[in-house]
Structures are given as C-alpha cells and as structure tokens.
Amino acid sequence: MSKPMSTNDSAEPAHQGAHPVGAGGELHQPVQGDHPPLTTNQGLPVSDNQNSLRANPRGPALLEDFILREKITHFDHERIPERIVHARGTGAHGYFELTQSLAPYTTAQVLTEVGTKTPLFARISTVAGGSGSSDTPRDVRGFAIKFYTQQGNWDLVGNNIPVFFIQDAIKFPDLIHAVKMEPDRAFPQAASAHDTFWDYISLTPKAMHMVMWIMSDRTLPRSLRMIEGFGIHSFRLINASGESTFVKFHWRPALGLQSTLWDEAVKIAGADPDFHRRDLFESLTSGRPAEWEFAVQLFTQEEADGFPFDHLDATKLIPEELVPLQVIGRLVLDRWPDNFFADTEQVAFCPSHIVSGIDFSNDPLLQGRLFSYLDTQLSRLGSPNFHQIPVNAPQCPFANQQRDGHMQMARPQGRVAYEPSSLAPDSPRESPDVGFRTAALPESGDKGRIRAERFADHYSQARQFYRSQTDHEQAHIASALVFELSKVEHAHIPQAMVGHLRHIDEDLARRVADGLGLDSLPGAPTAARPVQDLPPSPALRIIGKMKDTLAGRVIGILVADGSDGGTVEALRAAVLGAGASVKIVAPKVGAARLADGVLLAVDGQLAGTPSVLFDAVAILLSEEGARRLSSESAAIDFVRDAFGHLKALALDRGGQTLLQTAGLRPDAGVVAGDDVAAFLAAAKTRQWEREKRVRTLA
Ligand code: HDD
Questions:
Q1: What is the pTM of this model?
Q2: 172 assigned binding-site residue
C-alpha cells in the first residue's frame, strides 16, 4: 500500500518561497508578504485548498468533507436569474450636479439645490439578448439611473429612445415574448429579425412610431457615452403650494450622438462582443468620465390639451420645437464598480422609487411599470430585503417597522415593531410636512378596460419622425426594414408591414417593397384616425448631433516593420492632442521595427483588431510592408471596411498601395499620411458622400 501523501509532501515544503507542486499537480503560490488566511465561510482556516478529503490516495471522496461541500454548494448557487429584459448591461458610479434650480416647480431637493452633487449608479443595457449576448445588436438601449438623494432613492428608468412600442402595460409580456428568441427553437438571440417579432408588430399599429426609431441608427450606438437618454413618460413636478407641472426628462451626451453603420455593428459583434462595455471601462479607468446634460421639458395641463397628440401615450413624444429643452444639470459617470456582480448585476431599479416633489402621471404604461419592477426584484434577488444590498441601499437614513425576511442584514433593537406605539416614543413616525404626498388631483369618468380616443393616432408621429430624417438616415431606415423583414418566413407578415408603412410615407413603403421583391404595394390597413402632417423636427436626427470633435474617439494606426516612425509619431501626437486615443495595429503583437530601427509597441494584432473597432484609421506602411500585406486578407479587410464604413483614412504611399490592392479609389475622406490637419478634420465625421459609391441603399 502506498503511503498517503499530503499536499505539502512534495520535495520542498510549501510556504517557503518555492513553487512546490502538490500531489494534485497544482502549483502552490509562493508566499510573499502578509496574507490573510483562506477560511471557510464560518471563519475556519483551511489547510489545503487543492485536495478534497479521500479515503486513501486513489480512493473515493468522503461525504464528511464539509469544506468541499461548502465550496461547491456556494459555487452551484453563484448565478441569480438574469433579468427577463435588459439582461445585458454595463454599470458605473457617478454623480448628478444641478446647475439650474426648478424650485418654482418642485420641492424635490435633487432638483432645487444648485451645486449639490448627488451620488448615483447608472446601468445601460440592451433589451432582448441574454446577459452573455454581444453589445452591438440592433436594439433599444436601457438608460437607468439610481439617484441616492438625501430624501431617498429616485430611480429614473428610461431608454435611449423617447417613445415605446405599446401604450398599456398589459401588452408588455406579449411584446417581450414576441421579440425574445422563439420558444420552440431558442433563437434568434438578441435580434428582432424574426417571424414572431414582426408578426406581433404587424398586428400592433401603435408600435409604428417606435419601429421608425428602432430601424434608425439610434439602435446601433457607437458608444454608451454617445447615446441620448429619455425618461419617456410624462411625470409631474409638485411645488410647495401643491401645484403640478408636467415634465419629461432627457439626457444628452457631452460627446454628441453617434452611431455605427449596420454592417459595422455586425462585424463589431464578432471582433469584440464586449465593445461597449470595454469602451466605457477603458474610458472610466483611464480617467475620462462620461458625461451627459440633464434637460427637462416643462408644460402645463392647458398646453398639453393643445398638443395634437396625447402626452400620456408613451408612443408619442413632445417635439423639442414644441416644448424646448431646458438644461438644468449634468450627469457624470466616473467610477467603474469594484465588482460587476455586486453592483451592476444586483442593482434593482424600480420606477416606483420616487422622491417628494415628483409624482407619476396617468400614463397607463407607467402605471403598470410601478408594479412590475418591485415584483421582478423579489424573484431576481430572492428577498424583500434587496434594498439592503449596498448598491440599492439609500445613502440617507431610512427606518420603518418592516422586519425579518430572507437575508435580513439589519438588527433592529427593542420590542416594538409597529406604529403607533407608546412603548417606543423614539421609533420612526410619519412626517406630514416632508413625507411623500400623492398630488391631490380630481379623477372622474367611467371605470372600464378602455383607452383615450386620441391614443388611436398611430401613424402621425411615425411619419413626422421619418420625414424629419436626412436622406442618408431615411435610406438606413428603409434598408433596415428590408433586412429585418427579409428574415421573416411567413410572406403575409412583410406584406402587412409594408401596408402600415404606406400610412407613414408612400416612398418608404415603395422602397421596402422593392427591396423585398414584392410585385406590388399591398393595401394599407384602415387607420383608426386620419394621419396628420406634423411639422418636421430636426432634433430627431442623428446626423447633425455628432459633435465636431475627436474627443472620446479612437483612431487605429496600421503599421508593419519598416513603417516611417516620424509619420506615425506626428499623427499619433496630433490625434492625442485632439482628445482621441490611439491604438497601434500591426501584423505581430508586441512591437513593430520601424524604418529607423526603433521598436514601436503594438496594441493589437491585425487579424484580431479590425478597423471596425476605430472611428478613423491611418495606414502607414513602407512599400515592402504594403507588398507583404497585400496578400493578407485581414489587411485588405482593414482598409476595405474602413472605406466602406465611411471613415477617414490617412495613407502614406504604402497605405495607398493597400487601398489600390483592395480595389478602392480615394475620395475627399482619404488624405495623405503626413497631412495631419486634414486627417483631424476628416476624422471628426463620417464621409457621407461616399456612401452611394459603396452601398446600394433600399
Ligand atoms: Fe422595463 C427592466 C426600461 C416598460 C418591466 N426596463 C428595465 C430596464 C430598463 C427598462 C432600462 C433595466 C433596468 C436595469 O438596468 O436593471 N421598461 C423600460 C422603459 C419602458 C419599460 C423605458 C417603457 C417606457 N418594463 C416596461 C413595462 C414593464 C417592464 C411596461 C412591465 C409591465 N422592465 C420590466 C421588468 C424589468 C425591466 C421585467 C426586468 C429587470 C428589471 O425590471 O429589473 O420588471
């Protein structure tokens, strides 16, 4: 019988600075400096974290091994249910700073105390995909903020699109079941391009306005730092006299609004599924906070009565041209969470988390949401005590007589857990003066499963949105519809959709029908109300909201052995000076040996770092380098995609050779490698003029 060996029975005893190999083959870490003992969850120091307890060296494991059982049991329960929607999200800490007081309208201190920095946690998400899905599918982005105000937590749980698909919360499960992967086959993941989604939508005329938004490039953001955010619903602000003013909340990115192109987003998903998460991580951890303006639209009941739509209908927006935005503060995200699970996964947003001075409106979608979120947190986080998890806990005092429950962390003292009581005069009591009061507003009318008549105008704002877009944006919407509907197997569904499009814009319907190869235009369904021609709203465009800056953007420079160091350095310095960051790409990771013999550190290997990851590119190669890369498909793709995605290119002679090899002719967005000023100017925008040369748009 062989002699039983403990882990430390190797040639050298462990914990003496060497790297002894245990009987299990694991390398023991050398001991450097002080370290806390590894313990069980009960605090018992563990002597051996490599071997489970066995009857003999080659014998069975023993049930007695409570250390093994504790460790594996905990591991088995590490995952909690992912969110039914918005499962894929990225979060960060930051603060809100008020710059203009809304004191005439509200008692909410977060909106009246200018200069106060209110801590917050933000989570930005896609909607349809699972938590491990990629960052760049065509999808709405959730934009949820938890303000830790001194009067309690306020959650503003919005999206990057100011309208929604449906008007009544009772339809939310149907909508989500339709868009999520189909239940019999469990695909497609994170995609609306399938039968069940378009079937449901084609039977839901009220979704047409949102459809215009999701088919636009708004759902293909370049960066989470470059999206707008909207509270969507009308809320109420309540002032000290109890007067009410309606409000809509908006976030506007300091870096401007920017999207990718569809083909680009698809390729990014393969090149870097974590593209948005990594972008925010790199930005925040390198000291570049993400920032948004906070703006409000304020309006009275009388003004609302004059709108050509019902503002309580979440499928409608209030054009900025009708009610201008007032900027009242800024949101800064400046701290990446220490631990993803602790904060980003466990954060629990509820639209019902509100503060005094703000109140809900009668929007029926909002009213349903007030129920759903608290309910979902109970099953997702497993306990009514989820408010005690640090990321969810208020940062102001909070106290009541709620007690016990799963995972209770608090240790309330005394015998009184009720109110009123005479036994504990210092126990928490209600505060009639500062406590939350629902606005006392008259309600009348007949009870029933009913909807306001004006909610039935389903097409006017869809038309307004489409007709407000530039030619390029209209073409992208048409192409997106063609792509999505081409994936639908049942022919009657695209037909029905094109019928709806005829109410929005006859030309759009024709373009989509043509792209789908339909012989004739299907008939339009009967519209419940006449379609209004609302004035175009330029604020609804993306083009024009991209800021004339390189700040926050990333430039890729492709080099190889033999590239000219002076040109690379001049370009890099100028780009960094303009506030962008630079990544050097080369055939081999590590370093490239430049013409002068200097070794240039490389950030990414060519095949794994395609040009879709950059906002603009420079290709700086010696003739020999260009000749070698001319037979590399990754290099040809690099230049072809940058060109096809309408990016600026700075090319020296070697770069031009590669361009020619790729079969491309230069245009105004292709500048000389040493013309730094021209490159900086061109890189701030997309080369829209090029689009008709490289892509047939529906
Ligand atoms: Fe919702 C999550 C935004 C309608 C039910 N929703 C969720 C999140 C965002 C939104 C950003 C992710 C929060 C996070 O990061 O944890 N939802 C919206 C917007 C809506 C909307 C802007 C319409 C204007 N949602 C909506 C309705 C219902 C829900 C009508 C149900 C009746 N939403 C939920 C939910 C989720 C959720 C099931 C899933 C995870 C969670 O709540 O915490 O309760």
A1: 0.95
A2: yes
